[in-house]
Design a protein that fits this description.
122 residues; alpha/beta; Rossmann fold; 5-stranded parallel β-sheet
């Protein structure tokens, strides 16, 4: 567990998706934390210096765009990927204006998660 190990936060209210992405990234050697909602994500954001955050768009209480605004306000250098359902492409396009790196479409595929993460983090 070297200093170069990249830290990732996965935020999704759907437990199965959150756990699947977390598992995929941990198996690939990343240090991963997860949160079921924006409030918990912001608590973790204060505790850890993440390199990348993957957040769902549609969640109760605080949606992905609200989380992104908070992340960009508090820690603007963190890279962000928005997880969206296929039908959310219009909203996801609007999110690009908020300096997102990419969108990851549901259903989530292991290959897509790993390729996008490696491309962003190196």
């Amino acid at each position: 567990m070297g200093a170069e190990r990249k830290k990732i936060l996965v935020v999704d209210d759907e437990k199965n998706i959150r756990e699947a992405i977390t598992y995929i990234l941990k198996k690939a050697g990343y240090w991963v934390q997860s949160a079921p909602d924006g409030s918990e994500a912001l608590v973790l954001l204060e505790k850890f210096d993440f390199d990348l955050i993957l957040t769902d768009l549609n969640m109760p209480y605080m949606d992905g765009l609200e989380i992104i605004q908070e992340i960009q306000r508090k820690k603007p250098k963190i890279k962000i990927v928005l997880i969206t359902a296929s039908g959310d492409s219009g909203i996801a396009s609007g999110a690009d204006e908020k300096q997102l790196l990419r969108c990851l479409n549901k259903p989530i595929r292991k290959k897509d998660v790993l390729e996008l993460t490696r491309k962003i983090l190196g």
